[in-house]
Specification:
Radius of gyration of chain A: 22 Å
Cofactor (chains A, B): FAD
InterPro entries (chains A, B): FAD-bd_oxidored_4_C, FAD-bd_PCMH, FAD-bd_PCMH-like_sf, FAD-bd_PCMH_sub2, FAD-linked_Oxase-like_C, FAD-linked_OxidoTrans_Type4, GlcD, Oxid_FAD_bind_N
Pfam family, one (chains A, B): FAD-oxidase_C
Family (chains A, B): Belongs to the FAD-binding oxidoreductase/transferase type 4 family.
CATH architecture of the largest domain in chain A: 2-Layer Sandwich
Oligomer: homodimer
Distance between the termini of chain A: 15 Å
Number of strands of chain A: 18
Strand order of the largest sheet of chain A: 15-12-14-13-17-18-16
Shape of chain A: globular
Largest interface: A-B, 91 and 91 residues
CATH topology of the largest domain in chain A: Uridine Diphospho-n-acetylenolpyruvylglucosamine Reductase, domain 3
Number of helices of chain A: 15
Keywords (chains A, B): FAD, Flavoprotein, Oxidoreductase
């Protein structure tokens, strides 16, 4: 699809050393962290500046060549699978932290910065960037912005969108826009910043971002509450929120997840209980003490059989690190791991967990559930085998039922993973035909040739899950 | 413009009693809180339900009749002036607080709810809705959402946009969309919720909103720091933020504003100083105590000649109420009051205040300045007389210079008042021709006939300020 003449144009822009198109190299960028979906790009380009991105886009728009911006490919919705071929745009050179502005509490970054590097850099200055997706050790900020990534601290601190103050982005027509700025308030026209956040690379290519920082909380405590039944854990979540305590983290893990995580991390997690809640509070030390005490009492009153506060920072860190490893741990069980993130109003957590288990029974599939209980954002996860087509059909049917139930409970098909290809068939369930028509209109106005990450968010193939091979 | 047959269609939808079209009634809705801009609507309609809004829109789209949704008309950008005639849509019947959900910490409202009523209702349940525009006693939530209103608590708590979780809205084609929900996380497609917030009624008619609530802070303290020069006040703002304290409120008033407010409110404000900062902190009582102590020290070190903490809640309330009355107070000085809200990164507050004073001197106009210093959101205000055309030209030129300087400092033409008609000529200065093209593309895709609040945000008449008479 990409002619030698087009290739030489790319080479003239970024240099030969920043272009890859051998079969082996193309294979590497044919998939992301999403199981079972793969498609070969024609070429991989790594620009070194916004100007180079502009030039690349200009070549692509003339040739109607698809462009797929890609960070580390850690997304779980096949958001970076180059389903229509074309160019994968890598940001490995555009990975500078341009400025930490301590007066305005902002940080300005290029999209290729690794999330954890950003977090550590600002923490050295006593500042705090809260969004902490489980993949933060490898994920990029550009990817986080495109997917509007969440994380374990979302309950109290919100998601990536809540920290994006301004963007520089290259449009499909090769023009550059700058939105927002180091501004606590800005109502100059439509909110293009928030339109681009979470748009999965389908509306523009983000080349720079100014992010909001907050003061680093002075202290943090972590505790683990153990339950012999899942309802009691869910009830604890509701009771904590209803008591108007907003903990930094309020995570749920069921027994099968606990078992997998303990086998993987071996930090002495209990594996003989039905569920645990991992609870963190941060802030002023006295407030943290008070909230932890109150939450321990509420958990016990809701049926926790044990509540243990981590004695040391290391112990606390081990617990959250283990939680972040849940997907990796579950991925060891079977050749294929399907992880979803149906999300419901937090008051419906108990109903949703119950529904997931019933649905798993009905379709005779194993589903482990963990997730951000405080956000109502659950990750039902199915260890399976893509080669077993009969089982895959049952898995498919089970997840469709899970999405349907989430919608019935006032929820959504995806809380933080994005639509990409895997949720596209279900998007209409959440936003309706009218919502999709509005989104398509916006897409059409910004990218009339559909060169920006085509085949994502929208699909002709509603409801049925897509499985694609190269 | 509206024929008897169209009028009878409206009557059939909402009943005769919910239609107004006498000259006196039309005159009432020919202007809003913005000085010097007026245009007569053809008809005023007050629907009682979303279904009635749909029917009204269907009549309007067939007849290409402009629709201007209007809350209380307290906006300051001529956002609700029916510049192209047509229908003004009133929400006086759609003013119910539908549900306060204590489990999910949300409130669901119709657009006609008065902001202060909402705030008081949720506070009775120990919950908190932070956005508090100065007009909150009369403004509606629908208006707040359409303008993305700020307020005194914006520094710590953000603006209206930060609290809108979901919307129901009627599109220009008469279809109804529902965005978001009671969901802490939702990434199902583009963020239409945040696209509609602040879109000033130009993209859709908001008919219901689900808003985020937070626990009500347990305590609050208020203090006043007095300054003999403006730089010292601005320096205090920078030092407080750089010390990583985020107060709930950090307001600036210069001497002329202080004088006007004291004449109006008579609560014993000092009028012989150059500037004051009104500072509030809320939260856990010990944290509040600590922050207030630290901020008092920082203010003194930056040159405050006096720092006084309000002794009682009543005294504190009197101070913030006086601040909220600043516009009303200044409006008494001269027949016309032009109030703007140029906004800069908070580190540039001192430079911006200095620039405003220099610009006022250069154009020989009186400009009083107050505003949300912690947000970098200033309200330079000019008491003038619209009948004095020569002076109005100088006022015009001065504000153009102020916007230009704000942009140079990394700021924006409007922090919280919106673009409407009065900032439309300057929008390109902030977002560029490309930004405007993108916004126009979105507008075109959602409202191809331009029936929704036409003549707002976009203008043919760039840079020159519009002054229109009926």
């Amino acid at each position: 699809m990409i002619s030698p003449s087009i290739k030489s144009q790319f080479e003239a822009i970024v240099g030969k050393e920043n272009i890859m198109d051998s079969p082996a190299q193309r294979l590497v960028y044919s998939y992301d962290a999403t199981p079972n979906i793969q498609a070969m790009p024609d070429l991989i380009v790594a620009p070194r500046s916004t100007e180079e991105v502009v030039k690349i886009v200009n070549v692509c728009q003339k040739g109607k060549i698809p462009i797929v911006p890609r960070g580390s490919g850690s997304n779980l919705c096949a958001g970076t699978v180059p389903i229509a071929g074309g160019v994968v745009l890598l940001f490995k050179h555009m990975n500078r932290i341009i400025e930490v502005d301590e007066q305005n509490l902002t940080v300005t970054v290029q999209p290729g910065v690794i999330t954890q590097d950003l977090i550590e850099t600002v923490e050295q200055k006593g500042l705090f960037y809260p969004p902490d997706p489980s993949s933060m050790k490898i994920s990029t900020i550009g990817g986080n912005i495109n997917e509007n990534s969440g994380g374990l601290r979302g309950l109290k601190y919100g998601v990536t969108a809540d920290y994006v103050m301004g963007l520089e982005a290259v449009l499909a027509n090769g023009e550059v826009i700058r939105t927002g700025g180091k501004l606590a308030k800005d109502v100059a026209g439509y909110n293009l910043t928030q339109l681009l956040v979470g748009s999965e690379g389908t509306l523009a290519i983000i080349t720079e971002a100014t992010l909001k920082l907050i003061p680093k909380p002075e202290s943090k405590q972590t505790m683990l509450a153990l339950y012999e039944n899942i309802d009691a854990a869910a009830q604890s979540v509701s009771n904590i929120i209803a008591a108007q305590i907003i903990p930094a983290t309020l995570e749920f893990l069921d027994q099968p997840t606990l078992q997998a995580v303990e086998d993987f991390a071996q930090i002495g997690l209990p594996t003989d209980v039905e569920a645990v809640l991992l609870i963190e509070q941060d802030g002023d030390s006295q407030v943290v003490e008070r909230d932890m005490r109150k939450m321990a009492t509420l958990c016990t009153a809701s049926g926790a059989i044990s509540v243990q506060v981590a004695a040391t920072l290391e112990e606390a860190e081990a617990l959250t690190t283990a939680r972040r490893a849940a997907l990796s741990a579950l991925a060891r069980l079977k050749p294929t791991t399907i992880l979803e993130d149906a999300t419901v109003p937090r008051s419906e957590i108990a109903n949703m967990v119950k529904a997931i288990n019933e649905i798993a029974d009905r379709h005779q599939v194993k589903i482990c559930t963990f997730g951000h209980a405080g956000d109502g954002n659950l990750h039902p996860t199915c260890p399976t085998d893509a080669r077993d087509l009969e089982e895959m059909e049952r898995v498919e049917a089970a997840f469709a039922d899970i999405f349907e139930r989430a919608i019935q409970l006032g929820g959504t098909i995806t809380g933080e993973h994005g639509v990409g290809m895997v949720k596209a068939p279900y998007l209409q369930w959440k936003v309706g035909a009218t919502g999709i028509a509005v989104m398509k209109g916006i897409k059409q106005s910004l990218d009339p040739q559909h060169i920006l990450n085509p085949g994502k968010i929208f699909t002709e193939d509603a409801r049925k899950r897509l499985v694609v091979s190269s």
